[in-house]
């Protein structure tokens, strides 16, 4: 096991930068973009630099940001058109491109956002035909030393496969099913109301390639979303489950994984095509966590 993979926010992360600096977050995945104010007017060439760093390293992290929802949306739109999440009760009413993730409640008991979201390995919107290219998550309130998120690098997971396994996986397709996620994780946790029949009807199961070629880097990665995968197409049930089990244990090895410890004001931007993530369920109802997510569509980007 590569112990460096678990170095959480090495001390230099907390040092400010007088100029734009890109520095690795961990050996596994990620770049910290230091000395950058999301709210500024940014030249296209600078946005292109960020796109390249994201495609190569799967994860960008900007510390110490102070963003309104509109500022988050404007910055996110520099990278593509934004999704409005199908669980629309948790989108901001006047700005539905912001999907609110939170365990907080209003004074009347109504949830502030979606509680317990993403507490299983997945990549966002793998259950739609053209899955999201990237997501930006902004930390407004975080419980101290809890509620971290794990990120895994799927280029590295692909590269570590043996040649026969790569050959076997090439051309395979996997069914990703939002209803399965609801039944398996969301409903038993009981933290949020179940998806409605109308929301489920908008998200029928889809087939996704197991191996993707990233359009920007040309590199191959495993496209794995364990919380949503139900069946490897063409294999029988036993074979399919064995492959899914293998994919989970292979892709979540520590050397592919970085654990992000959130601070208020962090904005993390990840590439959904070449990484996956898992929010940790280690905090209680009084440990308040409030995040705003913007999610970039999977079409006409880069
Ligand atoms: C998500 O899966 O988008 C949420 C991740 C998190 O809340 O840390």
Give the helix/strand layout.
Layout: E1 21-24, E2 31-34, H1 44-57, E3 59-62, H2 69-77, E4 91-92, E5 95-102, E6 134-141, E7 149-153, H3 154-159, H4 163-169, E8 173-176, H5 178-189, H6 197-201, E9 206-209, E10 211-213, E11 220-222, E12 229-232, H7 237-251, E13 257-260, E14 267-271, E15 275-279, E16 290-296
Parallel strand pairs: 2-3
Antiparallel strand pairs: 1-2, 3-14, 4-5, 5-16, 6-14, 6-16, 7-13, 7-15, 8-9, 8-12, 10-11
Structure description:
The protein is an alpha+beta fold and 302 residues long. It has a single domain (11-296), classed as Double-stranded beta-helix (4-Layer Sandwich), CATH 3.60.130. 23% of the residues lie in helices and 25% in strands. The protein is built from 7 helices and 16 strands. It has helices at residues 44-57, 69-77, 154-159, 163-169, 178-189, 197-201, 237-251, and strands at residues 21-24, 31-34, 59-62, 91-92, 95-102, 134-141, 149-153, 173-176, 206-209, 211-213, 220-222, 229-232, 257-260, 267-271, 275-279, 290-296. An 8-stranded mixed sheet has the order 1-2-3-14-6-16-5-4, covered by helices on one side. A 3-stranded antiparallel sheet has the order 13-7-15. A 3-stranded antiparallel sheet has the order 9-8-12. A hairpin with a 6-residue loop joins strand 1 (21-24) and strand 2. It is globular, with a radius of gyration of 19 Å. The two termini are 34 Å apart. The model is unreliable at 1-11 (pLDDT under 50). Succinic acid (SIN) is lined by residues 101, 117-118, 124, 135, 137, 149, 277, 279, 291, 293. Succinic acid binds at residues 101, 117-118, 124, 135, 137, 149, 277, 279, 291, 293.
């Amino acid at each position: 096991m590569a112990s460096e993979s678990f170095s959480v926010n090495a001390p230099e992360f907390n040092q400010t930068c007088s100029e734009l600096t890109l520095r690795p977050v961990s050996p596994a995945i990620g770049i910290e973009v230091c000395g950058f104010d999301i709210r500024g007017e940014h030249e296209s060439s600078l946005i292109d630099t960020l796109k390249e760093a994201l495609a190569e390293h799967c994860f960008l992290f900007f510390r110490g940001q102070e963003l309104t929802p509109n500022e988050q949306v404007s910055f996110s739109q520099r990278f593509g058109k934004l999704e409005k999440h199908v669980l629309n009760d948790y989108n901001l009413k006047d700005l539905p491109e912001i999907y609110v993730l939170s365990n907080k409640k209003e004074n009347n008991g109504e949830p502030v956002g979606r509680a317990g979201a993403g507490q299983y390995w997945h990549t966002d919107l793998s259950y739609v035909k053209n899955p999201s290219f990237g997501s930006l998550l902004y930390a407004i309130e975080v419980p101290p030393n809890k509620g971290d998120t794990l990120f895994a690098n799927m280029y590295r997971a692909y590269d570590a496969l043996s040649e026969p396994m790569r050959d076997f996986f090439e051309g395979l397709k996997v069914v990703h099913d939002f209803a399965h996620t609801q039944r398996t994780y969301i409903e038993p946790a009981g933290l949020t109301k179940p998806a409605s029949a109308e929301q489920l009807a908008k998200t029928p199961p889809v087939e996704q390639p197991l191996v993707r070629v990233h359009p920007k880097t040309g590199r191959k990665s495993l496209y794995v979303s364990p919380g949503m995968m139900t069946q490897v197409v063409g294999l029988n049930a036993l074979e399919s489950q064995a492959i899914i089990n293998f994919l989970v244990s292979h892709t979540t090895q520590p050397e592919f994984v970085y654990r992000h410890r959130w601070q208020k004001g962090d904005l993390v931007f990840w590439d959904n095509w070449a990484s996956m993530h898992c929010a940790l369920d280690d905090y209680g109802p009084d440990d308040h966590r409030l995040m705003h997510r913007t999610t970039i569509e999977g079409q006409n980007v880069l």
